[in-house]
Amino acid sequence: MKSSKISDTRYLLPYNMAKKHFLETLKSAFVVKQIASSSEKFSILESFEWGLYKNNLLAIRHENQSISLWNKHNLFDIELAQKIDDINANSRFWWDFPDCTAKEILKPILDLRSLSPIYKGVLKIEQLNLQNEADKILVFCQLMSIYKPEQPRTPIMRQIIITPVTGYTKENGQAIELIRDLGGFKASLPPLDSLLGAIGVSAQPYTVKPQIEIPPSMPARSAVSSIINIMIEKQRLTEPGIIKDIDTEFLHHFRVAIRMLRAAIAHLKDVFPQHEVPILKQRFGDLARETNKLRDLDVFILDQERYMNLLPESIRNDLAPMFNDFQQNRQTEAKRISRWIGSKAYRDEINELQSLFENGYSAMETLWSEKPSIELAINKIQKTYKKIYTAAIKITHTTPDEDIHKIRIDCKNLRYLLYFFGSQFNKKKIKIVGKHLKSLQDTLGIFNDLTVQGEFLKNYLYQLEHKPKKDIMLIASLGGLISTLYTMKIQERDKCINELAIFSNDENRQLFKETFIVSSDTLPSQLQQKGNAE
Amino acid sequence: MKIVASYSIKGGVGKTAASVNLAYAAPKAANETLLIDLDPEGASSFYFRIGASKKEKSSYFFTKKNRLLSQVKGSNYKRLDILPANLSFRNFDIMLNNMSQSKQRLKELLSSLKINMI
């Protein structure tokens, strides 16, 4: 990223300040020379997760559709912009951009996310030089104004950037004095926040992970209800993105949110009346299952290049008809899901489910519903871990794949329990537990993906049987791909066995024992004594 | 920090032209740039309309760093500063030649400018 060490000084100016008054004030001490001026419609671009904001970056799309990218130190400095040219309005993903520095910066930040406009306005930038009679520049000035498109006369934000010139400190001070006389003031917030604040946009970084702090003494049912409620909210935030089919991550996070809340229902079921659990699971499950096909297609299409590269170059392109099929199916399926999410049937169902948890789930008391949430957390985390290590130590090279998949599901549930209740335990230890779990989950995840992908391709192969015209080369390349995936799966299986052995070793068991306890800083002493006695 | 020197004992080969153009291009790529004009004719400084104090002596170059730094002036281009030429630089090459460890001293001085200039 281009960055400048010049000590720019940014001042916000009163938005209703008359330009004439501004220039006359500066002219009282300097020869003011206007160098360049541009005015254009622009939009601020962001990903749904506010990835750019989180990385202190700002991207705008210009009227000609090109994109400028800045870091927070040089916002709107035209010379320091990383530009993405030769693109159109449909260029929203990093892979749509031609090779350039900005693309390299955006690639890891956006990943699968699309850039979308979060604000549209008119941007006016005026470069002014404050000079002496001999035409020597003493201070650089840049006046930046943002207007609402419907109010092109009154800016909603006006900012002046003063850039000192070496050797002219006195003149720089003089310019700052004049700016202050005009009512200019230094923004108290960081540059990006100050910009967003002035144009009335509030940053809302999204993450599907629940960042919650459940009080340890909170009754278990209230805690679980609040977790589920948060996850429903996260799920619902993805709905507009799925309806507009902005990027594939919206559906992915929709499903992850449901998966997490279903895990909460299934694993923390003791807080709900027994007969209501399967109904809740079924209702949320139905919502997720509706989207299975689209997600499968998304996963395959996103991985197209990787699949192609698994085959010898000579038969790589023979896979193309399959991906064309997938693309066509995806279009149809995405439209269907878009209609479904926008339908009254879906809305009614999710509204009803949401209303069950919004103000705490109301039902008959159960054995666990009123116990402190930390007791539930310890009980479930310890049980899930025990389930994993007892299964893990039985794994041998002849264990069926299904058993490994079951462990993977338990690991996922353990991960979710850590998300939900992690804040109730020692931070450092939770971090270590999380790290060990992640390493295991990554390996199990690859193993599972390879199995699922192999199955998916086999099913596609069987479908080809019914086609009147058989493409022999496609069938051959599919065969090649399936066998490559199988070989990879075998290798990955060995890695899984090793990782499982590490995860269930004595050291890790001790770590779990020490981490998930009632400690003095989480609960009142009464409960602590009780917890430790148990 | 990168140090680029444009040097030749022959005249008219484009030393000044190369220096000023490089000095103009470098800040366009966001590099903080200092153009040190050691040519007593001061053609580079003239390009950027910057004159030097007549009081300076070439010996100050190594002995009075703060005094040297105070001579640095910003150009009409952002991120490009100039240490303008001085008539006393006319024997700068002879001075360097007579100095012990001249290369090392010049290198140390230029490296330290980076810290002082920011």
In CATH, what is the homologous superfamily of the largest domain in chain A? CHAD domain
Question: Given the C-alpha coordinates, what overall shape of chain B results?
Answer: globular
Q: Which percent band covers the strand fraction of chain B? A: 5-15%
Query: In percent, how helical is the residue content of chain B?
Result: 40-55%
**Widest β-sheet, arrangement of strands of chain B:** 1-3-2
> What overall form of chain A do the CA principal axes indicate?
globular
Number of strands of chain A: 8
Main sheet: strand order of chain A: 1-8-7-6-2-3-4-5
**Count of alpha and pi helical runs of chain B:** 6
The fraction of residues in strands of chain A falls at 5-15%
Structural account:
- The complex is a heterodimer of chains A (534) and B (118).
- Chain A is of the alpha+beta class and 534 residues long.
- Chain A folds into two domains: 9-198, Hypothetical Protein Pfu-838710-001, CATH 2.40.320.10; 220-533, CHAD domain (Alpha solenoid), CATH 1.40.20.
- Helices cover 54% and strands 14% of the residues of chain A.
- Chain A has 20 helices and eight strands.
- In chain A, a hairpin with a 2-residue loop joins strand 7 (137-148) and strand 8 (151-164).
- In chain A, helix 6 crosses helix 15.
- The longest helix of chain A has 38 residues, at 427-464.
- By secondary structure, chain B is mainly α.
- Chain B has one domain (15-117): Rossmann fold, CATH 3.40.50.
- Helix content of chain B is 43%, strand content 8%.
- Chain B has helices at residues 15-28, 43-47, 60-63, 65-69, 92-98, 102-117; strands at residues 33-36, 73-74, 80-83.
- A three-stranded mixed sheet of chain B has the order 1-3-2, with helices on one face.
- In chain B, strand 2 and strand 3 form a beta hairpin.
- In chain B, 25% of the residues are buried.
- The mean pLDDT of chain B is 77.
- The interface between A and B is medium-sized, with 19 and 16 residues.
